[in-house]
Each structure stands twice: as C-alpha cells, then as structure tokens.
Amino acid sequence: MASSLVLPSRESLAGQWQLSSSSSPARTCVLELAAQPPMLTGDLECATELLGERPSGWEPTPDGLWLFDQQGSGLVHLNRDGAGYSVSRQQGELTLGRKSRD
C-alpha cells in the first residue's frame, strides 16, 4: 500500500528555529516562523549571509519547507530530515531545526 506525505500545518511549525550551514559551523541564525501570515523574523541578516538573499516568508510542503524572498519567489526548499529540515547545496549543507528551550 502506498504511503502519503502529510502537509504539516503552519501552526505546528510556528516558533523559534535555528538555521545553520556546514560551510560556517560557528554561524547559527535564530529565526521565528510566524503562522499567520507565514513570515520570518529574527536574525535575518545572518540568514541572508547563509542563503545569499534575504528570506521573508515560508510555507510547509508535504516533504519539507520553502523559504521565500520578499517578492514571494522561492529561495530554497529544505527537505524533511527527522525532526528538522536540510538541503545540500554547492556551498554546503543547510539545516533548519527547532531551537531548544534554554
């Protein structure tokens, strides 16, 4: 029997996340994913350095999560990877994981 991927709700993904890159392991960006509307806040300058462009929005997909620029164009699609998301790029692997509560 075929399995189906489930689209997570924005509300289930809202909160603080950490974006990091294997090419800059000391650099971790704390981002806030807001559900309504689906926008990003937090350390956007840091995220811009890792992504090459400034992210402003996001949307869940059945197999991952899209980060969008200010015009609504897709910057990067991160694939679901356990409890977080990741993508391999020429500049190294990007990972997005929930920020642990201190």
UniProtKB/TrEMBL annotation:
> What is the recorded name of this protein?
Protease inhibitor Inh
* Alkaline proteinase inhibitor/ Outer membrane lipoprotein Omp19 domain mapped to chain residues: 8-93
Which keywords has UniProt assigned to this entry? Metalloenzyme inhibitor, Metalloprotease inhibitor, Periplasm, Protease inhibitor, Signal
- Could you tell me which InterPro entries the record lists for this protein? Inh, Inh/Omp19, Protease_inh_B-barrel_dom
Q: Which species is listed as the source?
A: Pseudomonas asplenii
Q: Does the keyword Signal apply?
A: yes
Subcellular location per the Swiss-Prot or TrEMBL entry:
Periplasm
Is-annotated flag, keyword Membrane? no
What Gene3D superfamilies would the database entry show?
A: 2.40.128.10
Q: Which family does it belong to?
A: Belongs to the protease inhibitor I38 family.
| GO MF terms held by the record | metalloendopeptidase inhibitor activity
- Cellular component per GO? periplasmic space
